[in-house]
Structure formats: structure tokens, C-alpha cells
Design goal:
The structure holds two protein chains of two kinds. Chain A is about 70% helix and about 0% strand. By secondary structure, chain A is mostly helical. Chain A has one domain. The radius of gyration of chain A is 22 Å and the shape is elongated. By secondary structure, chain B is mostly helical. Chain B has a single domain, classed as Up-down Bundle (Four Helix Bundle (Hemerythrin (Met), subunit A)). In chain B, strands 1-2 form a two-stranded antiparallel ribbon. In chain B, about 35% of the residues are buried. The mean pLDDT of chain B is about 85. Classes of the chains: A mainly alpha, B mainly alpha.
């Protein structure tokens, strides 16, 4: 009896591990495509591209061709969050939120700094 | 140091059995909603633990209140592990944590089966010491299983390291108390 119970437990554990690994592999396999798609959505949103509104993260917005500023803000934030999850930048986001200092936000300053390095 | 022979009705086994059964039902419901087979393993473990607890042998010798308190705190501690901050967790960390949890609970389930009707939360002597199955190789395989299963939580949230270390200390104390009771012949 104990042997049967142990075998059942082993089978459940093996199947559960297989399921976990398979799910991870599928998510990783499609990651590049998902990131690319999400980048396009974000670019469309930030460019105020009203023709691409149907590609937004929230399906509830499909029937809303004109969005209010508040709605648009919410959709941008949601899409950014989704993008951060996809690129696994959660840790960096939390660090930045805790620091709340953004001196390096201006990409032009960063590039300028690289062109004429320090001392 | 230890209490004398016990001849009162062991109502705690019914309470323990019911608690394990309720955990089992929660695991079953989570399996139904998420489809994650890990919860089915948890349900299986909780269900057989509930049956063993209800059918458990009478204790020849039980531990004192200090031992019981340590055992109950140690059992309840995993309930307060933190999830990832704001629900954020990377896929690779989640994979590692999930695999460790499955492996750990497989060890816990096997140890539960080996222990059978000698099972209990609070340290007690029920018949002869279990030396079969995993207990042939490890003194306290159930605690080893929990330590493996909970390790993944440390990567999910850095504050879990405090709970994890406390858990290990409490498992060590429980193992020490149990060894004392089991080796004491009278």
C-alpha cells in the first residue's frame, strides 16, 4: 500500500515538474515575438497613433476609438508594465521607484557624456 | 521534563486531521482553478496526512509545552512567507522556486507515507521509531523536504530569508526534541 502511495506521489511530482518546465519553455520560446509586438504597441501609443488603438493591451478598449487622457494614461502604464514583465526588468523598476532620482533620463546627455568622457 | 503516560482521549488528532483536510481542499480548489499539477501533489499529501493523523497511534510519551509550542510555530511559519514585491517575479526565478517546491513536497509526501500512523505535529513517542523508507537514510526527512521546498521563496522575496532561517532553526529544535523523546526509553 505504501509503495502504491509513493508511486502516485512520484508520478504527480514528475508530471508537475514536466508541466512547469514545458510552460517555462513555451513562454521563453515566444518571448522575442511578444517583446517585438509589445514594442510596436508602445510606439503606437506614444506616437498617439489612433489607427492602432485595437492593438492595446486591454481588450475592453476595442470598441473605443477615441480615448480620454485618463484612459490613455492607464493603457500606456499597463502596456509599459507588461513590457517590463516581458523583458524581466521588474527588479530594476523597483530599484528606480525606491530611488526616485532620474538624472540619467535624458538620452542626449548620456550620449554627450560618452562622446566627451570625464577628466 | 516529559509528561507522564497519556491515557486521555486524543482529540487533537481529529483537529489536526480536519486542519490537514481543509488545507487539502484548498489545494484541490487551487488545482481546479489554475491547472497547476503541483497543487494536486499538495492535495494528495494533505489528504493522506489527514487520514494518518486521524488514525494515528496513541502516544506512549509526549513532549512538554515548550516542545509543542516550537512545533506549532514551526508548522504555521510557512503561511507568512511573502510573495514577490508587487507581484513581480521573473520567469527564471519562478521556475526555480516551482521546481524546488515540487521536489521538496515529494520528499515531504514520501516521509509522510513512511511515518504513517506515527505522525503528529507536537513531539511524541508513538510505538517504535520509524526506520523504514527515507527514515533509513535521514533522521528527519520531512524537515529536509520542507527546507528544500521553502528555499525557492528566498529568491521570490529577499525578506523571506528571515522566515527561512527562523524555520531552519525551529526544524532543528523540533528534531532535537523528537530525538530526546524517541531515545528516552521510560
Amino acid at each position: 500500500m505504501k509503495m502504491i502511495l509513493k508511486t502516485v506521489a512520484l508520478c504527480l511530482a514528475v508530471v508537475a515538474m514536466t508541466q512547469t518546465i514545458t510552460t517555462y519553455a513555451q513562454e521563453t520560446e515566444n518571448l522575442d515575438v511578444l517583446i517585438g509586438r509589445q514594442e510596436n504597441i508602445l510606439i503606437s501609443l506614444l506616437n498617439n497613433d489612433s489607427d492602432n488603438n485595437n492593438a492595446f493591451f486591454s481588450p475592453s478598449t476595442v470598441d473605443q476609438p477615441v480615448l480620454s487622457d485618463q484612459e490613455k494614461k492607464l493603457i500606456i502604464v499597463k502596456n509599459m508594465m507588461h513590457y517590463i514583465r516581458l523583458i524581466e526588468g521588474q527588479g530594476e523598476l523597483l530599484d528606480e521607484l525606491q530611488r526616485q532620482e532620474f538624472p540619467d533620463l535624458d538620452i542626449n546627455i548620456i550620449l554627450e557624456g560618452r562622446r566627451s568622457p570625464g577628466i | 521534563m516529559y509528561s507522564s503516560n497519556v491515557e486521555v482521549t486524543d482529540y487533537k488528532k481529529w483537529l489536526g486531521g480536519l486542519i490537514m483536510l481543509s488545507f487539502g481542499i484548498i489545494s484541490f480548489m487551487r488545482w481546479r482553478t489554475s491547472g497547476e499539477l503541483f497543487f494536486l501533489l499538495l492535495f494528495f499529501r494533505d489528504f493522506i496526512a489527514a487520514v494518518f493523523l486521524i488514525k494515528r497511534e496513541d502516544a506512549i510519551k509526549i513532549g512538554n509545552k515548550k516542545m509543542a509550542t516550537v512545533a506549532y510555530i514551526s508548522s504555521a511559519l510557512p503561511l507568512i512567507y511573502f510573495s514577490a514585491p508587487y507581484g513581480f517575479e521573473t520567469n527564471s526565478v519562478k521556475l526555480a522556486a516551482d521546481l524546488l517546491a515540487i521536489l521538496g513536497f515529494l520528499i515531504v509526501t514520501w516521509a509522510t507515507i513512511d511515518l504513517g500512523t506515527k505522525m503528529g505535529i507536537s513531539p511524541a513517542k508513538r510505538g517504535t521509531r520509524c526506520t523504514k523508507g527515507l527514515y533509513r537514510f535521514l533522521g528527519h526527512p520531512m524537515y529536509i523536504g520542507y527546507i528544500v521546498a521553502h528555499l525557492g521563496w528566498v529568491f521570490i522575496n529577499k525578506w523571506n530569508i528571515l522566515i527561512y532561517l527562523t524555520s531552519i532553526i525551529l526544524f532543528y529544535l523540533r528534531a532535537k526534541f523528537e530525538n530526546k523523546i524517541l531515545t528516552k526509553s521510560k
